């Protein structure tokens, strides 16, 4: 059955029919529906990408409302993945969407990575699951863009897309780099990061649940800008693929 792409007329006007068709034929995995991943998923959906898999095992917490797309005063306690699924299908009812309501655990990654994704967006903010996903994508030679730390920073104009080996002034990226070296991965991971000096006073420690021991303060627009930048990487790369 032919997909209705009439709603993408403005996109087609910009990129042309052939590149739009590449997006329609693509399948993108987005892991994490928080401040970065929720916006990345929405922008990827709005670009016309025809198939998506979204992953998140968390529910909306009141503290999410300052930065996360599914977080409203009316959605506390609800599944982020379910909320985003409803939103994405409202944007594109023909979207082939798979929803995985689970936290990323090492034993589940191999099964989750079985399909031949055209691109993977890593929007995980916990070290252990993030490393598991990056290593799995790297081992399978899947194209991936990974978001580094969006907390403790304020200036969206500082964001860069680069190889993880070239990141600096990002404690999260530094830790991920160090851990990846243990598996002999020193480069080849495309990331979105900010070299802005982090506001270290905004650090808080958490209870360690879901592989997360600490968190930085965040502002409304910074994670969204990370998500938009990651989505742009995916969309531009998919359009240029052979």
From TrEMBL:
<feature type="domain" description="THIF-type NAD/FAD binding fold">
    <location>
        <begin position="13"/>
        <end position="236"/>
    </location>
</feature>
<dbReference type="Pfam" id="PF00899">
    <property type="entry name" value="ThiF"/>
</dbReference>
<dbReference type="InterPro" id="IPR035985">
    <property type="entry name" value="Ubiquitin-activating_enz"/>
</dbReference>
<dbReference type="GO" id="GO:0061503">
    <property type="term" value="F:tRNA threonylcarbamoyladenosine dehydratase"/>
</dbReference>
<dbReference type="InterPro" id="IPR045886">
    <property type="entry name" value="ThiF/MoeB/HesA"/>
</dbReference>
<dbReference type="InterPro" id="IPR000594">
    <property type="entry name" value="ThiF_NAD_FAD-bd"/>
</dbReference>
<dbReference type="GO" id="GO:0008641">
    <property type="term" value="F:ubiquitin-like modifier activating enzyme activity"/>
</dbReference>
<dbReference type="GO" id="GO:0061504">
    <property type="term" value="P:cyclic threonylcarbamoyladenosine biosynthetic process"/>
</dbReference>
<protein>
    <submittedName>
        <fullName>tRNA A37 threonylcarbamoyladenosine dehydratase</fullName>
    </submittedName>
</protein>
């Amino acid at each position: 059955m032919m997909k209705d792409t009439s709603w993408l007329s403005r996109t087609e006007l910009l990129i042309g029919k052939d590149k739009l068709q590449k997006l329609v034929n693509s399948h993108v995995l987005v892991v994490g529906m928080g401040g970065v991943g929720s916006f990345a998923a929405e922008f990827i959906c709005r670009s016309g990408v025809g198939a998506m898999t979204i992953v998140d095992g968390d529910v909306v917490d009141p503290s999410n409302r300052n930065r996360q797309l599914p977080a409203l005063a009316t959605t506390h306690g609800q599944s982020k993945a379910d909320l985003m699924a409803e939103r994405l299908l409202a944007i594109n009812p023909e979207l082939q969407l798979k929803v995985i309501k689970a936290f990323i655990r090492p034993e589940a990654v191999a099964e989750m990575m079985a399909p031949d994704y055209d691109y993977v967006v890593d929007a995980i903010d916990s070290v252990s699951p993030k490393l598991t996903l990056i290593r799995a994508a790297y081992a399978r030679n899947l194209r991936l863009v990974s978001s580094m730390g969006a907390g403790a920073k304020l200036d969206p104009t500082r964001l860069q897309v680069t190889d993880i080996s070239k990141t600096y002034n990002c404690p999260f990226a530094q830790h991920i780099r160090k851990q990846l070296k243990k598996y002999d991965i020193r480069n080849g991971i495309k990331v979105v990061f900010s070299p802005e000096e982090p506001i270290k006073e905004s650090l808080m420690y958490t209870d360690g649940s879901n592989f997360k021991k600490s968190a930085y303060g965040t502002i409304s627009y910074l994670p969204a800008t990370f998500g938009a930048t990651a989505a742009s990487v995916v969309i531009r790369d998919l359009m240029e693929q052979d």
